[in-house]
């Protein structure tokens, strides 16, 4: 079967066993765009089956895409497989109509984007003094010293908060 390039199908005379809806769609068509953290390495692949259930339609299957994500610690990009499996959508009273899955798929794949991500569990991050990637080299900077002036800790933390708010 020819892969589909859109997430719509007509709910007309669907066979009991369902019809396969398989293909790829660009993230731009889902109104999702690259940013500082994410780069898209592949279109979104969908492998779905739409089957009639009484007077409604049940769509089931999975979604997959490869994206590049910047590591939270060392800022190096790495590859992440986004996967939503299974997805399940239910549409009532759509006999004969064109069903558009775009919004539902957009919502599901959005949730699959990791909010936090490390290139490896033991990522050593960047040296706070010279900025070198500590996974790749040892800069020889002295280790960070614990904060001095214990009495002022409360106010120090508050200062940090204010600074972060303004950035
Ligand atoms: Zn890292
Ligand atoms: Zn350093």
Helix content: 10-25%
What is the beta-strand fraction?
25-35%
Molecules bound to protein: zinc ion
Major sheet characteristics: 5 strands, antiparallel
Count of individual helical segments: 2
Overall spatial form: rod-shaped
Low-confidence stretches: none
Give the key terms.
single chain; 167 residues; alpha+beta; 5-stranded antiparallel β-sheet; two-stranded antiparallel ribbon; 15% helix; rod-shaped; binds zinc ion
What does this structure look like?
- This protein has helices at residues 102-112, 153-166, and strands at 8-10, 19-25, 38-40, 44-53, 56-70, 77-92, 98-100.
- It is of the alpha+beta class and 167 residues long.
- The chain has a domain at 8-112.
- Strands 2, 3, 4, 5 and 6 form a 5-stranded antiparallel sheet that branches. Strands 1-7 form a two-stranded antiparallel ribbon.
- Strand 4 and strand 5 form a beta hairpin.
- The relative contact order is 0.16.
- The mean pLDDT is 89.
- Bound molecules: zinc ion (ZN) (2 copies).
- The site of one zinc ion has 7 residues, from loops.
């Amino acid at each position: 079967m020819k892969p589909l390039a859109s997430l719509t199908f007509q709910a007309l005379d669907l066979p009991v066993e369902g019809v396969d809806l398989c293909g790829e769609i660009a993230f731009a068509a889902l109104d999702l765009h690259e940013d500082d953290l994410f780069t898209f390495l592949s279109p979104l692949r969908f492998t779905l089956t739409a089957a009639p259930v009484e007077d409604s339609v049940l769509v089931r299957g999975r979604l997959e895409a490869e994206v590049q994500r910047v590591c939270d610690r060392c800022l190096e990009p790495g590859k992440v497989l986004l996967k939503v499996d299974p997805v399940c959508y239910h549409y009532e009273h759509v006999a004969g109509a064109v069903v558009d899955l775009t919004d539902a798929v957009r919502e599901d794949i959005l949730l699959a984007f990791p909010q936090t991500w490390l290139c490896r569990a033991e990522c050593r991050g960047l040296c706070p003094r010279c900025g070198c990637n500590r996974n790749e080299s040892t800069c020889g900077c002295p280790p960070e010293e614990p904060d001095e002036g214990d009495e002022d800790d409360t106010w120090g933390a508050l200062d940090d908060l204010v600074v972060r708010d303004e950035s």
